[in-house]
Backbone:
């Protein structure tokens, strides 16, 4: 029902059972399909790290005795029902991270949880002091301080020993950041900076370096951007490969046509004739921007 991660095959089987129960109901036959939440002492959720994963996302394990009471009540209805327990303060924020959810929007507990989260962020904005602390520093020092802040928060929330264990250009997804961790990082950075940050912060700005640059722009505008964050290590690796790859390598990877199209769309005209006349080296240099390759 909720589209939980790591349970796609299980969800497909449940969808069939839901449809079967509803079909039997339409035909006047007995049948009920119960969508169970997390059982605390038995079930698939106890395998591996599944239980911890679900708890972190706001699914509360059901006490077996209470679950059996719910089972008895479910037998008195027809069709599909949900029997689960939620930590709404945690679940509502993560479940609605990508977009608002019509499934939950009418639940009073969800509306209260989301309203409370918004009120907390509003209070944070009024109490922020970091801007004042950084105002006396130069642009480069401010960026360094913000980068250290982001790495510190990420290390605290993701279980890293020290901020230095997180590379500035390391992608958050590589560190295991999921929707819940994204909300937590956003919340803590919001508290420490006083900014109203989006829930998608670490997805829109996927490295500590990128988040720090975003925070700097939000706090101080474009001031000092001439010393902007350097290109990521990933970009450097891609540029190095493109500059050194043979034409056959590019063609085998399906990149020749893409590079040709990109070059044709570039505003700068080719200096040595049409793009179609370029060899592989000239083509790559042209796409990368002159002599950068």
Residues:
């Amino acid at each position: 029902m909720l589209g939980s991660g790591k349970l796609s095959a299980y969800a497909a089987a449940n969808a069939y059972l839901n449809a079967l129960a509803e079909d039997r109901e339409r035909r006047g036959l007995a049948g009920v399909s119960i969508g169970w939440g997390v059982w605390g002492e038995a079930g698939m959720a106890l395998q591996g790290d599944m239980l911890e994963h679900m708890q972190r996302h706001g699914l509360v394990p059901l006490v077996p005795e209470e679950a059996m009471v719910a089972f008895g009540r479910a037998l008195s209805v027809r069709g599909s029902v949900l029997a689960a327990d939620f930590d709404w303060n945690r679940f509502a924020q993560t479940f609605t991270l990508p977009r608002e959810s019509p499934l939950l929007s009418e639940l009073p507990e969800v509306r209260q949880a989301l309203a409370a989260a918004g009120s907390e962020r509003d209070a944070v904005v009024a109490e922020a002091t970091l801007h004042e602390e950084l105002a006396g520093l130069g642009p480069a020092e401010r960026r360094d301080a913000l980068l250290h802040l982001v790495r510190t928060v990420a290390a605290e929330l993701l279980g890293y020993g020290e901020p230095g264990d997180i590379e500035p250009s390391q992608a958050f997804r590589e560190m295991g950041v999921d929707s819940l961790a994204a909300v937590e990082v956003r919340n803590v950075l919001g508290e420490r900076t006083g900014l109203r940050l989006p829930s998608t912060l670490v997805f829109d700005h996927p490295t500590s370096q990128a988040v720090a640059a975003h925070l700097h722009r939000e706090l101080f505008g474009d001031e000092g951007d001439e010393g902007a964050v350097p290109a990521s290590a990933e970009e450097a690796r891609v540029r190095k490969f493109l500059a050194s790859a043979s034409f056959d390598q590019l063609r085998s990877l399906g990149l020749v046509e893409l590079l040709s199209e990109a070059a044709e769309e570039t505003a700068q005209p080719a200096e040595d004739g049409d793009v179609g006349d370029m060899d592989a080296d000239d083509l790559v240099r042209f796409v990368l921007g002159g002599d950068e390759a």
User: Anything to note?
Assistant: DSSP finds 15 helices and four strands in the chain. The longest strand covers residues 32-36. Residues 123-128, 226-231, 269-273 have pLDDT under 50 and may be disordered.
